[in-house]
Design a protein that fits this description.
By secondary structure, the chain is α+β, with helices and mostly antiparallel strands. The chain folds into 3 domains: 3-142; 171-280; 285-387, Arc Repressor Mutant, subunit A (Orthogonal Bundle), CATH 1.10.10.60. Helix content is 61%, strand content 7%. Helix 6 packs across helix 10 and helix 8 (174-185) runs antiparallel to helix 9 (189-199).
């Protein structure tokens, strides 16, 4: 596999921004993509993380001073694969002002930077991690083939190698992917399932030597673009990514290809249902703004007064409006949202329950356990044991 093919797989297959560098110079694509460093300093993304890249470490997850995230894979002979820039959540005006105060960004660049951040591709923590692992597997296969094949001479390749290369990069027609993306964004479950059946009639890309691992890698990629389609359909990104994280964890815990295929259908069912619920949602713009604020500040202290001041609305009026439209109090919504978000920490980190309780602003470990059990029906430790992928 040439690096050009690796670029196409990451860019077209995984739908992630990627560049290939050779000895510090970008060779693919020739034209650079927008970045905070380009806006501020007129330099490409690579220059903003160059000093952080460690030689000898194959895969590295990096963040620059502008809150942009990257996946960096160091290859042989001076090659480097750089995936990004990406963001893991909203980058707000306050964070840009912080850059100005630290004299990293000029006052006049604030608006440009905010517009750029709004357009920056969002990725969840688990998708960020799993994408890196998946690309690492592809790159390891690439390097292994490089050592055993003369890639400079097409004539030296056997027909078997060529056929295998074609198989590795076989994909369903792009128009079908566009169609299913549109259907998921529209909340059309039945038609999306029909198009999925058409897509699955085509030969899938072979992403690993082991068929099970290949199916898992392919389904993780599908889950990623389907999640983005749901977000495009109006689903709150935090909600969409939470569901996506659960799906990815379930994919990793499955060891039967037939059940993986059924899971793909369930992913479509649940994501299109989320889109339909969002479109049918009768909440006012004010209540939706409250929900967005809460979801974005789950690890911070949240009070009715702060939210009301942020939205320039009377606190008593806002509290009554929220309870009337949603059916329960704002405090309950905050508590339930924190419990839902903490599930990720239970499954993907080694943080203790007491630390997780502190991270999500619960007053004590016992109160966190009590809230978790009231909402989910089980304790955090029981949930961790049931859902953690070994």
């Amino acid at each position: 596999m040439h690096y050009s093919k690796l670029f196409l797989y990451i860019h077209d297959g995984m739908r992630l921004p990627v560049s290939i560098y050779k000895d510090g110079e970008r060779i693919i694509p020739k034209k650079g993509r927008p970045s905070a460093n380009l806006i501020v300093n007129g330099q490409n993304s690579y220059m903003s993380i160059k000093e952080s890249i460690k030689q000898g470490e194959n895969i590295q997850y990096l963040q620059n001073i502008y809150y942009e995230n990257f996946i960096c894979l160091v290859g042989e002979k001076g090659y480097l694969v750089l995936v990004g820039p990406l963001k893991k959540g909203p980058i707000r005006r306050g964070e840009v002002k912080s850059l100005v105060r630290r004299q990293l960004v000029s006052y006049h660049n604030q608006s440009l930077l905010l517009n750029y951040y709004a357009s920056l591709q969002t990725i969840s923590e688990s998708q960020y991690y799993m994408s890196g692992k998946l690309i690492q597997k592809l790159m390891e296969g690439h390097l292994k083939r490089q050592r055993t094949t003369n890639i400079d001479s097409d004539a030296s390749r056997s027909s078997g190698d060529i056929e295998n290369g074609a198989f590795i990069f076989s994909h369903s027609p792009y128009y079908l992917e566009q169609k299913i993306t549109k259907l998921i964004s529209g909340g059309d479950t039945e038609e999306a399932r029909n198009v999925l059946s058409l897509i699955n009639k085509h030969k899938k890309a072979h992403l690993a030597k082991n068929d099970l691992r290949s199916h898992k890698n392919s389904l993780i990629c599908d889950c990623t673009f389907m999640t983005r389609a749901a977000i495009a359909g109006g689903v709150n990104p935090e909600v969409a990514f939470f569901h996506s994280d659960l799906f990815i964890r379930e994919i990793e815990s499955e060891f039967d290809i037939a059940r993986l295929k059924k899971l793909e259908l369930r992913i479509i069912n649940e994501l299109t249902s989320l889109v339909k619920e969002t479109k049918q949602n009768k909440y006012s713009q004010t209540v939706r703004s409250v929900m967005d604020y809460i979801i974005s500040h789950l690890k911070e202290k949240i009070t009715l007064t702060v939210i009301a001041d942020t939205l320039f609305i009377n606190a008593s009026y806002l509290s009554g409006l929220f309870s009337k439209e949603v059916g329960f109090t704002m405090n309950h919504y905050i508590k339930a949202s924190r419990v839902a978000e903490s599930k990720w920490d239970l499954c993907y980190t080694n943080n203790t329950v007491v630390n997780i309780a502190s991270i999500y602003q619960f007053s004590s470990q016992s109160y966190y356990i009590s809230c978790f059990k009231d909402i989910t029906g089980e304790t955090p430790l029981k949930y961790r044991r049931r859902h953690t992928v070994v």
